[in-house]
Amino acid sequence: MSKPPLTIHLAAPRGFCAGVDRAIKIVEMALTKWGAPVYVRHEIVHNKYVVDGLRDKGAVFVEELDECPDDRPVIFSAHGVAKVVPAEAQRRNMIYVDATCPLVSKVHIEAERHSESGLQIIMIGHAGHPETIGTMGQLPDGEVLLVETEADVADVDVRDPDKLAFVTQTTLSVDDTKGIVAALNNRFPNIVGPHKEDICYATTNRQEAVKEVAPKVDAMLVVGAPNSSNSKRLVEVGSKNGCDYSQLVQRSTDIDWRALEGISALGITAGASAPEVLVNEVIDAFRDRFDVTVEIVETAVERVNFKVPRVLRDVEAAS
Fold first, then answer.
1. Are the C-beta atoms of residues 297 and 9 closer than 8 Å to each other?
2. Of 36, 116, 252, 269, whose CB neighbour count within 10 A is largest?
3. Catalytic site residues?
4. Maximum distance among all Cα pairs of the chain, rounded to whole angstroms
5. Which bin fits 255, alpha (ψ -120 to 50), beta or left (φ > 0)?
């Protein structure tokens, strides 16, 4: 029997961003420099395949610093940590490496500068996400207030409505955040925004590519993890831009084939912490069932590269 034809519209950019690439390199370089085990506080990036691969090489993933011994290196995840975490590592004389994405660090610095100017901060983000916890933890309790939705803006209790600034989690939906920013500006006309958009270039680029693909396809698959904020936003962007069936899959084994019966055009993208090998695995699974033609839909070219911390540059030079 001949296979039914299927055109796969493959979004570009997709997958690893510069911050994720750097964070994974940091763990690998730390293992080269200090040997196993190297401890990592929280998943280095939100992807099970990546985390399992690093665990196999000798990384030990923990949630809190008190799970780490004093005499082994510890790495802080790409999402960033509250200030008390490196302070405690210093107190214990631990070797630690901060793998916080430089674009997240930019938001941390922004929040501190606003605070030094006497401004209270409103953060647009998701409660409980490690990036939100890390950003809010740059300042004392009460100095950063969290809003998740436009409705939250009406209820936020501020110290002085004329002395406010806002920052944003880097992995949010660009479109959803616009509404929250508009609500903030409407309620607090003097609120100070970021000099440059907080939502990172990679999040924006991946969402723009999905917007281009979504109207052309019968279904959209986003390769990513269920705890990955930017991956979940890509699913939402697909749904809101003309694709009724937009789903998150971690691996090819997660594909719901019954839901995809009769499709002729499929969109595929990947969250910023999903490796390309998993995208290829999904495409190969469709090749087994369909006569596949792949069309690349490229909306931007990324050339961003972040340096690893100085403590690991000797490893980089030797490689």
1. yes
2. 269
3. 131
4. 71
5. beta
Helical ranges in the chain per DSSP H: 18-34, 48-57, 84-91, 102-116, 130-136, 150-155, 174-187, 201-213, 229-240, 276-287, 313-318
Tokens 């034809």 label which residue?
Answer: 5
pLDDT at 3 over 90: yes
DSSP reduced 3-state for 18 = helix
CA dist 283 and 305 (Å) reads 27
Q: What is the pLDDT of residues 273-319, one digit of tens each?
A: 999 999 999 999 999 999 999 999 999 999 999 999 999 998 877 77
Fold entry, domain 103-187: Cobalt-precorrin-4 Transmethylase; domain 1 (3.40.1010)
Q: Are 191 and 166 in contact (CB under 8 A)?
A: yes
* 18-101 and 103-187 share one fold: no
319 burial level (CB within 10 Å; 0-12, 13-18, 19+): exposed
Distance separating alpha carbons of residues 208 and 17, to the nearest angstrom? 15
The residue to which tokens 């110290």 are assigned:
159
Using alpha carbons only, give the angle 141, 143, 146 rounded to the nearest 5 degrees: 90
| Of 135, 137, 74, 87, nearest in space to 107 by CA | 135
- Which 8-state DSSP code applies to residue 4? P
Give the integer Cα–Cα distance in Å for 232 and 223: 10
Kindly report the backbone phi and psi dihedral angles of residue 161, in degrees, each rounded to the nearest multiple of 5, phi listed first. Answer: -65, -15
CATH 2.70.70.10 fits 5-16+201-298, yes or no: no
- Is the peptide bond preceding residue 140 cis, with omega within 30 degrees of 0? no
Does the domain at 18-101 match CATH 3.40.640.10? Answer given as: no
Q: What is the pLDDT of residues 218-232, one digit of tens each?
A: 999 999 999 999 999
Cis before residue 13, ω within 30 degrees of 0? yes
Helix/strand/coil percentages in the chain, nearest 5: 40, 20, 40
- Domains of the chain, residue spans: 5-16+201-298, 18-101, 103-187
Q: Are the CB atoms for 158 and 191 separated by under 8 Å?
A: no
